[in-house]
Amino acid sequence: MKRVGWLLVILGLVGSLLVAWQRAGWEEQTYTLSYDYSEALSLARFSGNSITKTLKSLGEAGVRSVAISQYTAGEAARQGKLLLWDGTAIAAGGLVPSKLQQITPLPGRLYIMAQDAAVAADLAALLPDLGGQVLDEEQNLWQLPGSLSLFLDQPLGLPQEKLKLARSMGLAIIVRLENDHRLSLEGMDYLLSSAAGAQALLCKGKEVFGYPGKLSHVARRLTELELPYAIIEFSKQNGQEQLASLIAPQVLRLHTIPRAELDKMDQQKAQERLVRAATERSIPLLYLRPLLTEKGDLLAANVSFVRKLNARLQDLGYNPEPAMPRPPWESSRLLFYLVALAPIGACLIVFSWLPQSVTKILLSLLFLALLGLPLLNILRARQLFALFAAIVFPLLAVVGGNRYEGLLRACIAGLIALFGGLVVSALLGSWQFALALWRFAGVKVAFVVPLGLVGLWAFSPLAEGKGWQEFKKWAEEQLSSPIRVWHLLFGLILAVIMAIYLLRSGNTGLAPQWERTLRETLERAFRYRPRTKEFLFGYPLLVLGFSLKQSWGQRLCVTLGTVGLVSTINSFAHAHSPLVASLIRSFWGLTLGIALGWLLTFVVKKLLSVMDRG
Questions:
Q1: Element (DSSP H or E) covering residue 449
Q2: Residue 410 parent element (H or E)
Q3: CB proximity list for 518: less than 8 A, separation 6 or greater
Q4: Cβ contact 222:250 at 8 Å
Q5: Rounded Cα–Cα distance for residues 307 and 323 (Å)
Q6: Which residues of 589-603 are buried (b: 16+ CB within 10 A; e: fewer)?
Q7: Angle, CA of 287, 292 and 294, to the nearest 5°
């Protein structure tokens, strides 16, 4: 049965390499730097420059588009494009403005008069949905229920003068629209149509445009207008994932540093974060805000920041091109079936000690799932088989090289984990996962279950090459043994360790400051930073565990060393990251970890030798 298992693993690996080749041809190394227009205005004001000079300087430094939001009623009023009167204030004062002499102003009503043709058009399209009533079409006079203070913040149309200025400088436009539940489909169509020709739609506020009940209509109109939707990484906007799913693949992923976080950063940290977004997570649209805490010439400092960011990305092989949605890609079902043989084969190998009857049932169920799940939902099938592979390959890595010892066995385990990562990546070989619209399911399960399975193997007779009967007898003895105080203490300590392990499974998690500093240093030294849990913890312990004689401590080292194998495979589960990033990161994690493991083993063996002589 093991030979059949290895044959299936090899076939799956061949399929994984074919998918990797396809994916490498689909992935792009491009980026676009975009700037928030309102933040550019703040930069111009604080630096004592005009917005024209500010945008020109940013454009020369590498900015290729600007994000422009709807103007508000208050902004239009301050610019003299809109006249506003509060009916309650008029009634209390008794003095009726000359422009309202033909009507009787009522308390609780606002009176609005456009002084600009573009603003008049926006009012005509939007105010009826807000409860507005036209009183004089010739003078563009409207009556609207509500308070003046609230209406001043009301978003209206797109500011034509800002659009004109940006386009005159060769900058593309990203349109920012704010959701308003009162808008009818016609009012929404008016705003969306005014965004035609833009680079993308970027929603503003806590909800996406059209949330909750009009997302299908918005997606349909965006498709008709060929207007991509920009989805903000790490955003909590309501409806973001639903709208992205409805309009996919007409989606652009965008990364930005929120103002509250940016104000705590210096240029280097801000640049590193943006570079990571582009190079490690394939974000094509980098949305910039000015660093307002810089000293000296504020405009010059921010222009320098953009130039350095632009140069850094190009040095890494990325090209500044207009951000456009990539065409959909996915590996064929035939390749999916071929790749899925790998985890099935791995399962046959690691559970070959089970009775033959159980193995046949297990094999039948796995092939039934392989044939049936893709027919029901291919994306869900990709998720489940990727999780299956992420669970079984760390165990295969530990068990598969049991003919060898020490450094060589650890290297073989690391390579098997690397191959397992390629299998997971290939099983997720679809644009939905590459755009993070669908994600690897069961991240925490994939972190914990392999450690439990390896621990069960390491502390049982299976690690000594025994079979089912010996394992069954051992399990019965363990279950019938009384629970002692040290069992409870050990379980408590183990629970705390696992909790910390899970909480640290993110980018920073509960990592102490020294480790975060180390990570930042590694990011400067390596294009793709090796994971600390691999080269500082997992692989060194794995080398040590494979080098020592069998004992309680040796088995614990092997179990904890599995963290390195799990982390390697997990790197490939991030399907939105470039495949080359996962490969290089894993290579350095394995190489450095094996080197440190050799050093650790040398030191431990010397200490044990001294203790034996003593």
A1: helix 443-459
A2: helix 406-427
A3: 532
A4: yes
A5: 19
A6: bbebbbebbbebbee
A7: 115
Residues ≥6 apart with Cβ < 8 Å to 316: 275, 279, 527
Token pair listed for 353:
């000690």
* Residue 236 DSSP SS3: coil
In terms of Cβ atoms closer than 10 Å to its own Cβ (0-12, 13-18, 19+), residue 466 is middle
Q: Which tens digits make up the pLDDT trace of 229-253?
A: 999 998 889 999 999 999 989 999 9
The whole-number average pLDDT for the span 313-342 is: 93
Q: What are the pLDDT digits (tens) for 581-602?
A: 999 999 999 999 999 999 999 9
**Structure token digits, residue 359:** 């193995």
Alpha-carbon distance of 362 to 392, in angstroms, equals 14
Nearest Cα to 463, choosing from 475, 472, 473, 454? 454
Backbone angles phi, psi at 34, to 5 degrees: -120, 150
pLDDT at 365 over 50: yes
Phi, psi (degrees; rounded to nearest 5) at 33: -95, 120
- Collapsing DSSP to helix, strand or coil, 332 comes out as coil
What is the radius of gyration, based on Cα positions, of the chain? 31
Instruction: Please answer whether residues 545 and 441 qualify as being in contact, where contact means their C-beta atoms are separated by less than 8 angstroms.
Output: no
DSSP one-letter string for 494-545:
HHHHHHHHHHTTSSSTT--HHHHHHHHHHHHHSSSPPPHIIIIIIHHHHHHH
